[in-house]
Amino acid sequence: MVWSPGKQLNRGRYRIERELGRGGNSITYLAKNKQDEAFAIKTLNDEFINSEILPSSEFNRWQEIFIQEAFKLAKCSHPHIVRVEEIFPEDGVWCIVMEYIAGTNLASYVQQQTLLEQEALQYIQQIGNALITVHNNGFLHRKIGPENILLRHNQSEGKAVLIDFSLARPFDQDLTETRSGEIADGFTPMELYSHTGKRGPYTDIYALGATLYLLLTGETPPNAQDRYLNDISLQPPQEINPQISDRVNDAIILAMALEPEHRPQSIKEWFELMKLPVTTEETSKTKKASRSSISVIDQMIVLASGGAFVGGLIAQFYGAVIGAVFGAIFAVLYKKNRSHN
Hints:
By secondary structure, the protein is α+β, with helices and mostly antiparallel strands. It has helices spanning 46-49, 59-75, 106-112, 117-136, 201-217, 224-230, 237-240, 246-255, 267-274, 284-303, 307-318, 320-340; strands at residues 8-9, 14-22, 26-33, 38-44, 84-90, 93-99, 103-105, 139-140, 149-152, 160-162, 169-170.
């Protein structure tokens, strides 16, 4: 089930224009509403759903994981985090409607040129401040890298934007396994190769440091697991690009330490090494995102797939008792909603 251009979604509210791209388990489309405004709509990839990799019994679990991505995005409102607008079901799968960002990702951008330090630090500062919001909400992104940082063509709205929260997890959530699709060669820290690894803000700092390494050298840093198993030292980025300042060179090396305890423990601490300010950006876009967040959370409460899931999701953030009560209530609301449709 790949939607063709012209396909109407959400009772005619959106019209598919074209496919934007595919990930390991999702597909994203460019769509427009009746006012001809552009949006990105993400849903589970039909090839993934129907493949042997995913037994039919796992379908509902993946739907829940997919909806949780929208919840995380809704909670993490920031000018440099992609904004979620709404969610809805279509043809048996859930859809996440997000702002459409006209631009290119950092991976493509750096192929054209090695960046000057000032420009690279601008993007790292923007994404780092976005990560402070993510971490303050109790999440790790776990998928930081140049592929998941978009640069807007319209610079008046800010430049770098963090996308793809599909792997975001609470700090203390156990990982039952690590899948090959969750490993980004050169950007994934050692602790994410093991489900027992110690995780915290320093986990995302490793990946952001590796991203800065790429931006300033044009080279993807070596795989963390290879460094660990083969005792490979990280080549200082300044040896590749002598124009890198001492403080930025040292900050990258610290951020990419294999042992979590040897890295800066927060974005703020890492920024201080590079003399980058931590900023709290309050813009009209942020305020709009906050209103959108409330709307999306309301939608998930009313529409999510069953009261047990809603209760579990709410319990994760607000406590087991509140989760149990809301789960029971919204199981009834969900059934009523289905009966009216």
